Automatic annotation (TrEMBL), chains A, B:
Keyword NAD: yes
Record-linked InterPro entries: Met8-like, NAD(P)-bd_dom_sf, SirC_C, Sirohaem_synthase_central, Sirohaem_synthase_N
Reactions this protein catalyses: precorrin-2 + NAD(+) = sirohydrochlorin + NADH + 2 H(+)
One Gene Ontology term from the biological process aspect of the record: siroheme biosynthetic process
Protein name from the UniProt record: precorrin-2 dehydrogenase
Length: 199, 199
């Protein structure tokens, strides 16, 4: 398996199934701005509410293969493993498919993810132990705490400013490395002074 | 950005450009069994050798948009940022595109990844600081050492055996949680005894 981060903004995602697992995946996808369609005769409250608010489209019937035709990502999350596998088998070669009931049947796994603003750490085990993936994610959440969110904004701002200066590669890299020191994450004053020195 | 792990086995990847960066990405993709085509008038030695050995296809000319037509993933890695962006602009909505020279122009980022057998930890920063992503990856490499490779094989073996027993959910989860204790990673004897108890 090959780890990538994908921009989901505007991408069509078809979710087969309207249970708790589907709803959990949908929440993350809506955050990323995906264009989500849920196809399921029943749906949990969250999904019904998102549909009412126009945040997603809910088609209240059993999924059909043609529903997935132009999907970028298909999430097969019904409680029927055979149906989920059938959706995976009928996907086009270039479509992304996650099969909740049996990830080996699809071509996409969802890692356990830790997000701190722009910092994203994703942990997966190729299905060997989803519980270990979650445990490692939780351990990393202590190590990489909330302070990273603001720190990443600082790093981003610095990067744009440093790039705009037209410096030689060595000088540029020196600055980009300097700001990796923990003191910049720990001290707002340090960050402010450094930004002033760049402006 | 949304982190996923993708099965690249047999997937068509078109790489525009034949330099060092292209070669580094290609190495990982070949490991994952992707069907790689490099299009570039020139290519570094590694790419030439892979082409000679039949591990990839090298087309020795400037890339054309039609080369990308049925690609699952396009890696725009020429030294010409305008050409790279043009490839991204002309990609179909559902194609995955990484633009090496300017990742914001594509829809895929490559995280800094740490692999220990089946364990995969991917770190990305939405481009805010690739250097921080690498630093965190290197810190994690010390924390999650080589011992995880064998440990993940053990966890996988246990999972298959535990699943095959037809236990109640609570009993199954108890066993799956028990093996997350560090002593199983640290002691081969502990692992052997546990596997014996399952068989």
């Amino acid at each position: 398996m090959y780890p990538i981060s994908v921009r989901m903004q505007g991408k069509k995602v078809v979710v087969a199934g309207g249970g708790k697992v589907a709803s959990f995946k949908v929440a993350l996808l809506l955050e990323e701005g995906a264009d989500v369609t849920v196809v399921s005769p029943e749906a949990v409250n969250e999904i019904r509410q998102w549909a009412e608010k126009g945040k997603l489209k809910w088609i209240s019937r059993q999924i059909e293969i043609s529903d997935c035709e132009d999907a970028f990502l298909i999430i097969a999350a019904t409680d029927n493993p055979e149906l989920n596998e059938k959706l995976a088998q009928n996907a086009k070669p270039n479509q992304l498919v996650n099969v909740i009931t049996n990830p080996e049947k699809g071509n996409v796994h969802f890692p356990a993810a830790l997000k701190r603003g722009k910092l994203l750490i994703a942990v997966s085990t190729e299905g060997a132990s989803p519980k270990l993936a979650k445990k490692i994610r939780n351990d990393l959440a202590k190590l990489y705490d909330d302070s990273y969110e603001e720190y990443l904004e600082f790093l981003n701002e610095c990067r744009v400013l440093i790039k705009s200066k037209g410096l030689e590669k060595a000088a540029k890299n020196k600055l980009l490395l300097e700001i990796l020191q923990d003191e910049f994450r720990e001290s707002e004053e340090k960050r402010r002074k450094f930004l002033e020195s760049l402006n």
